[in-house]
Automatic annotation (TrEMBL):
<dbReference type="InterPro" id="IPR049577">
    <property type="entry name" value="GMPP_N"/>
</dbReference>
<dbReference type="InterPro" id="IPR005835">
    <property type="entry name" value="NTP_transferase_dom"/>
</dbReference>
<dbReference type="GO" id="GO:0005525">
    <property type="term" value="F:GTP binding"/>
</dbReference>
<feature type="domain" description="MannoseP isomerase/GMP-like beta-helix">
    <location>
        <begin position="298"/>
        <end position="350"/>
    </location>
</feature>
<dbReference type="GO" id="GO:0009298">
    <property type="term" value="P:GDP-mannose biosynthetic process"/>
</dbReference>
<keyword id="KW-0808">Transferase</keyword>
<dbReference type="InterPro" id="IPR051161">
    <property type="entry name" value="Mannose-6P_isomerase_type2"/>
</dbReference>
<dbReference type="Pfam" id="PF22640">
    <property type="entry name" value="ManC_GMP_beta-helix"/>
</dbReference>
<dbReference type="InterPro" id="IPR054566">
    <property type="entry name" value="ManC/GMP-like_b-helix"/>
</dbReference>
<protein>
    <recommendedName>
        <fullName>mannose-1-phosphate guanylyltransferase</fullName>
        <ecNumber>2.7.7.13</ecNumber>
    </recommendedName>
</protein>
<keyword id="KW-0547">Nucleotide-binding</keyword>
<feature type="domain" description="Nucleotidyl transferase">
    <location>
        <begin position="5"/>
        <end position="283"/>
    </location>
</feature>
<dbReference type="Pfam" id="PF00483">
    <property type="entry name" value="NTP_transferase"/>
</dbReference>
<keyword id="KW-0548">Nucleotidyltransferase</keyword>
<keyword id="KW-0342">GTP-binding</keyword>
<dbReference type="GO" id="GO:0004475">
    <property type="term" value="F:mannose-1-phosphate guanylyltransferase (GTP) activity"/>
</dbReference>
<dbReference type="InterPro" id="IPR029044">
    <property type="entry name" value="Nucleotide-diphossugar_trans"/>
</dbReference>
C-alpha cells in the first residue's frame, strides 16, 4: 500500500511564549540550531515516506509563514488550510478525505510538527513496524515512548503485556489511555512495566480511520462528507469554511482512540521529547556545570539550574535558581521552572486585555 504522512502544524505553542507567537508558533522555531522544527519533522519522516506523499495541516492564519519557510520539496498543493482550529480529530479526518479522494486507500501516518527526536534511524524503524502492523492486522496504532522518568507532564498508555504474541512481539493491545498523573502515580506506572508515554503519533489505513469517524464521531463525519465533492476544487476552502464552525472541538484521543476496540501500541525508544514548554529544553541542550541551560549572552553569579534564553541583550543574574528567563525584542518572561506549564495562561491574559501585539 502507498504510504502517506500527515503533519499537524496548526498549534499556537503558547507555552513557549514570548518566543512563540501567533505569527510564528513553536513549529516554526529553530530551537536546535539546525532547522525549524517542522522541517526537521519532514526530514525525519522522509526517510520512510516520500516527500511527495507528505501533507501538512495548518491554520489559514499561518499561510504566509508556512509557504515561506517550509521545505521546498513539499508540494504546496499538499498544504491543507483550516479556517479555524478545531483540535486534532477534525484536521485528521480532513487530511484523510483529501488523500482518499485522489489515492483511495493507503497507510496514513500522523505526526505533530513540533517534537524533538534524537535517533532518526530508530524512529524510522518504529514507523516501519507500525506500517507493517497496519497492513497485516488493520489496527489503529499509536506509538508509545518507553518512559525514562516519572513524568507528570505526559499522558500514559496502559497496555496488555501478554498480547504481544499476536503482533510478532512488536506491539501490544491498549487497555487504557491515562491522563497526566500525579508524581506518585507516575512512579507506580513506571514500576508496573506496562505503561508508556503517549507520543501523539498514529498509524492506520485511511479507510479504517474514516470508518471509525463514522462510528464514533458521526457528526464530524457527516459534515465533512456533505462537502466531500468539493475537495481538490476551487470551491474547497469556501465549503470547508461553511462547516468548520459547527464541528466538534475534540481530540483524536478523546474522540476515537479511547473508544475504539482495535487499538494497539508500538513501543519506541528514540530520544523523543515533545518540547512542550521551556523546561523541556534540556532534551535538546545539555546543561553547564551549574545545571543551567543557556542560549543567550549571559553573565551570572551563583546562578544554578536555570533556563536562560535571549535575543540580543545581555542577561545578568545573581543568586537565582530554578528560574526560566526568556527575552525577545518586546517581551521578557520570568518564571519558576516548576510553573513552566502555566506560561500559556499569560497568553490567555494578554488576549483578555487585548494586548494583541504581544500574542
Amino acid at each position: 500500500m502507498q504510504r502517506f504522512a500527515v503533519v499537524m502544524a496548526g498549534g499556537g505553542g503558547t507555552r513557549f511564549w514570548p518566543l512563540s507567537r501567533s505569527s510564528s508558533p513553536k513549529q516554526f522555531l529553530n530551537l536546535s540550531g539546525n532547522d525549524i522544527l517542522i522541517n526537521e519533522t519532514i526530514d525525519r519522516i522522509s526517510k520512510v515516506i516520500p516527500k511527495k506523499n507528505i501533507f501538512i495541516v495548518t491554520n489559514i492564519n499561518q499561510k504566509e509563514m508556512i509557504e515561506k519557510v517550509l521545505d521546498e520539496e513539499i508540494d504546496r498543493n499538499n498544504i491543507i488550510y483550516e479556517p479555524i482550529g478545531r483540535n486534532t480529530a477534525a484536521c485528521i479526518l480532513y487530511a484523510a478525505l483529501k488523500i482518499k479522494k485522489i489515492h483511495e486507500d493507503g497507510i496514513m501516518c500522523v505526526f505533530p510538527s513540533d517534537h524533538y527526536i534524537k535517533d532518526n534511524e530508530g524512529f524510522a524503524e518504529v514507523i516501519n513496524t507500525c506500517i507493517e502492523i497496519a497492513e497485516k492486522h488493520d489496527k489503529l496504532i499509536t506509538i508509545g515512548i518507553n518512559p525514562t522518568f516519572p513524568s507528570t507532564g505526559y499522558g500514559y498508555i496502559k497496555f496488555d503485556i501478554d498480547s504481544s504474541d499476536k503482533y510478532e512481539k512488536k506491539a501490544y493491545e491498549v487497555l487504557e489511555f491515562v491522563e497526566k498523573p500525579s508524581f506518585d502515580r507516575a512512579k507506580a506506572y513506571i514500576k508496573s512495566g506496562n505503561y508508556l508515554w503517549n507520543s501523539g503519533m498514529f498509524v492506520w489505513k485511511i479507510d479504517t480511520i474514516i470508518q471509525n469517524f463514522n462510528r464514533f464521531l458521526p457528526r464530524i463525519y457527516n459534515r465533512f462528507y456533505s462537502v466531500y465533492e468539493y475537495l481538490w476544487t476551487d470551491q474547497e476552502f469556501e465549503k470547508i469554511g461553511e462547516i468548520y464552525p459547527s464541528l466538534q472541538d475534540i481530540s483524536i484521543d478523546y474522540g476515537i482512540m479511547e473508544r475504539a476496540d482495535e487499538v494497539v501500541v508500538v513501543p519506541g525508544d528514540f530520544g523523543w521529547n515533545d518540547v512542550g514548554s521551556w523546561d523541556s529544553l534540556g532534551a535538546i541542550f545539555p546543561p553547564d556545570d551549574d545545571g543551567n541551560i543557556v542560549k543567550a549572552l549571559h553573565v551570572g553569579i551563583d546562578t544554578r539550574d536555570c533556563i536562560i534564553y535571549g535575543n540580543n541583550r545581555l542577561i545578568a543574574t545573581i543568586n537565582v535558581s530554578d528560574v526560566i528567563i526568556a527575552e525577545t525584542e518586546d517581551a521578557v518572561l520570568v518564571c519558576a521552572k516548576n510553573r513552566a506549564q502555566d506560561v500559556k495562561k499569560i497568553v490567555e491574559i494578554l488576549k483578555e486585555r487585548k494586548l494583541d501585539k504581544f500574542i
